[in-house]
Structures are given as structure tokens and as C-alpha cells.
Structure prediction request, 566 residues.
Amino acid sequence: MRILPEPADRHRPWRDALWVAGVPLALLALALVLVPPQGNFPFNDDWIYGRAVSQWLAAGHFEGHPFSTASLIGQAAWGTLFCLIFGFSFEVLRWSTIVLWALAAATTGLTARAIGAQRWSAMLAGTLVIANPLAFNLGYTFMTDVPFMAMMAVSGYGYVRALETPRSRWCLLGSLFGAGALLIRQFAPVILIAFLLVSIPRWRSWRTPKIRRCAVALGAPWLIAFTLLNLMPQHAGALGHVWKPRNLGNGLMEQLLGAPEFYGITFVYLALFALPLVLGAAACWLAPHVGCWKRRLLWTAPILTMLVIFTAARAPHRMPYLGNIIYDLGLGPMTMRGNYSEDGMWTPHAWGNGWWLLTAAGLLGAAWMGAAILVWLKGKPNENREPAMAVRRRQQTFLGIWAIIAILALYHPWLPVRFDRYLLGALVPVLALVASAPILTKPVICWAQGICLALQFSFSLAAQHDYLSWNQVRWKALGELMAEGIRPEKIDGGYEFNGWYTSDHFIERLGPMAFLKSGPKGWWVVDDVYAIAWKPREGYVTRDVLPYATWLGPDQELLLLERESQ
Prediction:
């Protein structure tokens, strides 16, 4: 027995849009009310992109930034547009990202609906873009990750519709936003490759004028974007950290074994991010009336075994495997000195072995995803007898290839690090693809999905509150120091503070290489007479204790340190 996905409501499309796009936007509005994006200060790397915007406003043209390895021009143009209207500040830049975050969430749900997902599943796909901890943290920044995801989401929607109705306007929509994504980050062509692999075999059945119009609509935006990139200032090549095979491991064998380990880890992360959808789809997939559930469980077992072997073979053995955004119990990079030691990274709150629960859930979800892909590959429909299913399969194939190439592109020697935030590049196609799978609509399944969504959203909300809380306290203290007449060159205020205020001191002497040679104290610290930290330092006295509120545990405190006189 085959269970077909629920078709979209063609007679009342506004009803689909209201639920599928409106509910994620309402959830985002709730998040912004509970955790307002306040604070005129940078997060993570967005001081680099903020500097590019401020220079554009001052000079009247794009100059880039020596530390940016991203394409950046599209990101800087978007931020500059907002700042021309509202004035330059990091709060304004943050809101420019929030607008695109909302676009990504709404478009993800509409894409899932367009390929036959039930309304409930499509709505879940959109809300999971809001609840996702990586997107939640980065949506409150001017980082490139969420804008890139948004551009790719709209591009994917255009290409999905083009695979259903091969018209030039859908090809143009996909390529315009895909080219826009290319002007933000270089990984954008993965979506064009995926579309071409799926669509080219079908072009022979189209009329010649249609092929020409679609080809122009498909190729022109990409050609313009590539031309712009070649005309814009380029700095990243001077950073000198490309093509280092040791980034993948110390020896050839370690580098080769690192690939399945990394891809297994990404599967676990993505399965966790899509867990509410995975629950519904897996419950249907294992239902007795769908097929031989015992045989399907047997297919799942070896995949689960391989995932366990590859992901648990080396430390940390459990979630969170990758660094940068998600750490032991919180979100956002820990960007102040003194948190790292031989024992690992110190964090204000820690869940410890509790992460094994999420690791187990991720492993089970990833094993199901792997087995479901194998079963899906066997079930090719007859295009003459089942044309609607054949169209759906092409759309799903496109989303699958897009996700796979986006993940494959992360493991190569040119990429010096593999941060968890890079997985956002595959989040949209994975959510839309899993949402399109048939689900059981029993109340108990829907309640389980809703609870999983609520837990993910609650963690993201609380962790983002804490991230904003300690940053607001930090920057308030730094502002008071400078108000006393203390120059930034005398302060170790953390990565973002010294990047914004004192990195120019190093760039003038070293150019882009200042990114790698940031001085003996690190992070462009000139002279650390004063410092902000969580932990005491030898040779320093505590000038002030800076408490801040947290939702994930007991309230914490930062320390304002002053170096003892020699």
C-alpha cells in the first residue's frame, strides 16, 4: 500500500500560506518579544561584516574587509541598504538578518508544501528553521549564515516549482536568489548543480523556444554574479590558510577515516534538527500497513551500527561533536580568553552526560534517514502511470542532491575548520525533504512532534537569552572603561571588542595576515592592562564583579580585571 502525500490546496492557496508561512513568523515574533535583539555591539565574526558596511557608507563603494573569506558583497549591500534608511548600528544590521531569517522559515514551509507535504508537516518544517539553535543564535547577528540560508531557500523554492512547471519565471526566481546567495558565500553553486543534474535529462521533451527562455533565465543571473565577484576587491587569498591537508588529520589514513566520521556526525546533527518531522515519518514508515516493518528495522540496524562506530570512536564521543555555536549547555562562541585549558573548555553551565540522550535520539534518527533513503531509491514510479509521483520524485531528488553536495563541500583541505554553523547550508533541503515523507496523523504522534518542537525552541530561546545577557553586561562594562578615558589598546575585551577597535593596529602592519598573526596575546590585544573574563587570572586583581541573569541555570558573573602594578 502506498501512502500519498497530501496535495496543496489549489483552490485556497491563501489558507496554505497562512498556516505554513504564518505560524513560523508568529513563532519568530514571540521569540523577539521574549528575547529582544538589543545591544549596539557585534557578535562572533559580524564585526568584520559590519566594518565592510561602515566603510561602504563612508567611501560610497564596496571595499570589503581583509579578514572576510566569504563573498560578502551581497551581505554588505543588504546591510548598507538598512543602514541608509535607519542609520548604522549593529542593532540595525541585526534586524536586517532577522528579516531574512523570517524569509527562510516561510520559504522552507512553502517548499515542503509545494512538493506534497501535508500542511502540518510543512508548518513544522518552517517552524524548525526558527527553533533551530544554530539559526536562532545566528539570526541575532550580522553573520553570513542566515542570509545565505534565506537566499538559498528562495532559490530552492523557485527550482522546485520549475521542476513541476518548467517555466522561465521559476528558473529566473531560482537563479536570481541563487546568484544572490553566491554574493554572500561561495557555496551557492551547489544548488545550481543539483538543479541541472535533475532537470537536464528532461529538457529534450520541451519545446525549443521554452528551452531557450529557461536557459537564459537560468544562466544570466549566475553569470552576472560571477562577473561581479571577479570585479570586486579580493582579500581572502592572502590569508594563507588554504590547502592544508593536515586540517583533515595528521596522516593519510586519519584524513580518509575522518570523512565518514564527519559525514556521520552531520547526519546526527541534521536528524536532531529535524527530529519532530523524523518522528512522524518514521512512525508511518514502520507502520505494519505500509510494508514489512521487521525488514525495515533490519535495514536500519547496520546503518545505526556504522554511525555509532564512526561518531563515537573518538572524543567527544557524544553531542555536541562540533564547535563554535552549540557547546555543552548554551549557544554562541565563548570569545573571551581564559576559558580553554588542558581539561577542555570551561562553560558557565554544563549538561555533561545528559547529552547522551540527544546523541541517542540523533543516532536513531540518522539511521532511519539512511534506511529511508535506500528504500526510496528502490521505489521509482512509472512516469506514464504516475506522472504526479514522478514530478514529486524529481523534486525530492533535487532537494536530496542539494543537501548531499552542501555537506560534501564541507570536508576538503581548503576549509581550515568545520564549524557546526556550516550545517545550516543543508538545513532547508533536509527539512523540506523529510516533511514531504508520508506521516501518521494520529494525535499521539502530533503531540510528540509538538513537544519536541517546543523543547528545541525553549532551549534555543533560553540559550540565546543567556548569550545576549553576558554580552550586554560585557559591553556595558567596556563602554564604562572607555568613558573613563581608557583607550581600547589597553583593554582585552574579547574577540569582537578587539577585532572592532584594535585589529586595525595589526592590519596596517601585516595586512590580511593579521588574521593569523594577531599578536602574542591573541585576538589583536595590544596591551591587556584591563580584561573582561569569567575566571581570575594570575597577576590580576578583580576590579569589579559583573553579575548577569541566565535562564539555563543559576545566575553567573563576569570579572573586570586589572593588572597588578609591577
